[in-house]
Amino acid sequence: MSPSKTKAVFFDFMGTCLDWHSSVVKSMPASISTDDASKLALNWRRLYFLENEERFRQNLAPEDIDVTLARVLDTALSEAPGHPHLEASEKRQLVDAWHSQTAWPEVPKAIQSLREDLGLEVFVHANGTTRLQLDLTRSSGLKFDMLFSSKILGLYKPNLDAYRKALELVQRSPEEVVMVAAHAYDLRAAKALGMKTVYIYRWTDDIHEDMEQVQGEFDVFLESMDDLPNVIKNL
């Protein structure tokens, strides 16, 4: 594909662009050690993905992410070392923490370069609610041309129709769009539709994926977004 063929970039949001882990760990009660808080956060995230996968398999409508996170938090706590007991207010604080996240250090510059240097459209294409995405763009300072949530699309990723609908809304063909994500399942769906795919490795995500396999699955595998504009320019 020539550089001029790419017109837009779809970004997964949490994990890919945002450091969700730090925000969640910081919101944990002081009674939970930093190490245990990290393990709890990672397992909570894992359980959230499993819940989404189950709803996807059952062809259920997207659920408010706050509702899903609140429900699986009890399971995460029961599986955590020491089985910590949290008050309702502490649980609410933990769920609220997902609405305020900072970007990974290199992300703002990469997205700015895609927009200003390459003249590309940049979109969020992620599971979750529009409210969540609005809150996260504010807390992270990241700027996108549009936010596509599973709430607004009415579909969970990796349902292929979620990608088709977003492409239809921005009037772009799959060949004109690059999907950037830290989740292999996301890129596998995008690839199946003919989109170019860039995998961003984040230690917080895809913890059960075989990274050697992942490195060979997609068009590009990157350790960060530092070189993302140059990579997309030459895809």
TrEMBL record:
Picking any one GO molecular function of the record gives: phosphatase activity
Report whether Nucleotide-binding shows up as a keyword of the record: no
Read off the SUPFAM superfamilies from this record: HAD-like (SSF56784)
Pfam families in UniProt: Hydrolase
Keywords from the UniProt entry = Hydrolase
NCBIfam families tied to this protein: HAD-SF-IA-v2
Q: What is the name attached to this protein's record?
A: Haloacid dehalogenase
